[in-house]
């Protein structure tokens, strides 16, 4: 038998990768954009792309764990919004230091997440219904507080975080992806996530099997 062409072998291996279904359209889009503009692969353009995509990338990393476990959360966008409004209002209206404002916003988001967990694990509401309720609650709080008006002015030091030539927004998705990769490779956590995916109706019991603490009913 003739040996297969090296390029063909590499292509077959690439197609066999689970993520190829996502990577191939992405690579195709990058090739098309690069062909239409010689500025697509410039540092400034790629920096803008990363800055714009940071929100979606960070959100998708958290959603990946839920999807692997057989669940979902449709309230993430609204919780993001209320976290942003909380931080912005504290800094703009109450002169709270940037670090404290951001920490308080994270706490507010964590409380919404804990409430979602309570609704799903303790009260036994379906994740879709539970997170839809918290989504509308968060949206209502944002709209009611801001009256649809932007919260401003924000401190210059805070605005500089995402507006410098080399912004933190470029690195946040990479840091979060690395953190998720390290956690995903941890045997107990990976085992727990896949156990819950295999037995979604009893996630607490299946989480205990690899030794993770879980709520006891």
Question: Can you tell me about this structure?
Answer:
The protein has about 220 residues and is an all-alpha fold. Among the domains are: about 1-40, no CATH class; about 75-155, no CATH class. It has 10 helices and no strands. The chain has helices at about 5-15, 20-35, 45-70, 75-95, 100-120, 125-145, 155-160, 170-185, 185-200, 205-210.
Keywords:
single chain, 217 residues, mainly alpha, 10 helices, 72% helix, 0% strand
Contiguous runs where pLDDT drops below 50 for at least 5 residues: 166-171, 175-180
Distance between the termini: 62 Å
Largest sheet descriptor = none
> In what range is the share of β-strand residues?
under 5%
Secondary structure: number of strands:
0
Radius of gyration: 22 Å
Structural class of the secondary structure composition?
mainly alpha
Number of distinct helices: 10
Order of helices and strands: HHHHHHHHHH
> What oligomeric state do the depicted chains represent?
single chain
């Amino acid at each position: 038998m003739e040996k297969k062409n090296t390029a063909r072998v590499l292509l077959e291996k690439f197609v066999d990768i689970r993520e190829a279904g996502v990577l191939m359209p992405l690579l195709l889009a990058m090739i098309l954009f690069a062909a239409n503009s010689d500025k697509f692969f410039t540092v400034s353009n790629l920096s803008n792309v990363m800055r714009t995509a940071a929100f979606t990338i960070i959100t998708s990393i958290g959603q990946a764990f839920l999807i692997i476990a057989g669940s979902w959360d449709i309230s993430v966008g609204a919780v993001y919004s209320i976290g942003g409004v909380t931080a912005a209002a504290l800094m703009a209206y109450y002169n709270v230091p940037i670090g404290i404002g951001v920490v308080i916003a994270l706490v507010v988001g964590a409380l919404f997440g804990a409430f979602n967990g309570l609704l799903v694990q303790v009260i036994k509401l379906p994740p879709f219904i539970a997170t839809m309720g918290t989504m509308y609650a968060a949206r209502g709080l944002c709209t009611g507080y801001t009256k649809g008006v932007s919260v401003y002015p924000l401190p210059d030091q805070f605005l500089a975080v995402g507006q410098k030539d080399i912004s933190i927004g470029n690195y946040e998705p990479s840091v979060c992806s690395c953190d998720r990769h390290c956690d995903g490779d941890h045997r107990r956590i990976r085992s727990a996530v896949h156990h819950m995916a295999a037995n979604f109706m009893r996630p607490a019991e299946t989480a205990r099997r690899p030794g993770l603490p879980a709520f006891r009913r």
